[in-house]
């Protein structure tokens, strides 16, 4: 495995695209990724309202803001002060221009020297930490997230918490639920609950169901055949997806893990 440079990787991806393909699932096209983000935002809004009964008046931070999807989500939920952050110059510049009312920091969450002095009532770190492939940097990132939370604050962490073994690739690491839970505990964070985000509209990495894997193969083929076909399929499945993830306790792909500082 070569030495992964996350800053260079994301600068290149974001410069090459102004849309969701820059931050979304490579190879599925803009239409399908747009529906994937609609699912993410709908699930996040439900989870946030469940764990934050009073969102108005809160100070919130989003880690790895990218194209600003979760900044928009916090706006819709009525957070009082929203701070975004990203590793890349490209994202910080674009978000600062598009959202002049939002403070956007250039920050690497795995670097404690880059942290602001602020503390926050709630933090979103969505689909970010599986790109922190170095285990020591993951530990530092979790310690930094804990440091940025106010006492009684809530961390919303989205990742794929598999029930099998950790699996490392060059720019993506799938860590097990046990690995994640232990790392969170070592860094002063306690898991309150997990909420599935996808069942049909993301790769079922944490499932051994042949039916689900055949379904995902069909999705990939349609998206490669024509992005519009993938988008139409996702639009048709969207209502069922929201129902399934509301009913299920365990996810087959990404989940939102809700964490709080340990007492």
What does this structure look like?
With 263 residues, the protein is α/β, with parallel strands linked by helices. 43% of the residues lie in helices and 20% in strands. The chain has eight helices and nine strands. The strands form two sheets. Strands 3-2-1-4-5-9-8 form a seven-stranded mixed beta sheet, sandwiched between helices. Strands 6-7 form a two-stranded antiparallel ribbon. A hairpin with a 4-residue loop joins β6 and β7 (173-174). The chain is globular.
Draw up the topology in text:
Blueprint: H1 6-16, H2 29-51, E1 59-63, H3 69-77, E2 81-86, H4 89-98, E3 103-106, E4 120-126, H5 135-148, E5 149-159, E6 167-168, E7 173-174, H6 177-186, E8 189-196, H7 210-225, H8 227-247, E9 255-261
Parallel strand pairs: 1-2, 1-4, 2-3, 4-5
Antiparallel strand pairs: 5-9, 6-7, 8-9
How many beta-strand segments? 9
CA-CA gap between termini = 39 Å
Taking the sheet with the most strands, its summary is:
7 strands, mixed
Order of helices and strands: HHEHEHEEHEEEHEHHE
Radius of gyration, in Å, reads 18 Å
List keywords for this structure.
two-stranded antiparallel ribbon; alpha/beta; 263 residues; 7-stranded mixed sheet
